[in-house]
């Protein structure tokens, strides 16, 4: 009976691994690239608005 219990442990692990694998590999709803591209556009515009000020020797410290 103890041998069956030891065989049950890997069996349960295999079942758990297969369930996790099917959950991890599921097709997720794709949001599209629109949100990311809009964020990048806002970032780029913000970077263009902020002028680059060169540091003088007194600003270095």
UniProtKB/TrEMBL annotation:
This is Uncharacterized protein. It comes from Streptomyces triticiradicis.
């Amino acid at each position: 009976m103890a041998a069956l219990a030891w065989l049950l442990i890997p069996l349960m692990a295999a079942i758990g691994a297969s369930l996790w694998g099917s959950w991890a590999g599921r097709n997720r709803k794709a949001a599209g690239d629109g949100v990311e591209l809009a964020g990048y556009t806002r970032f780029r515009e913000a970077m263009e608005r902020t002028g680059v000020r060169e540091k003088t020797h007194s600003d270095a410290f």
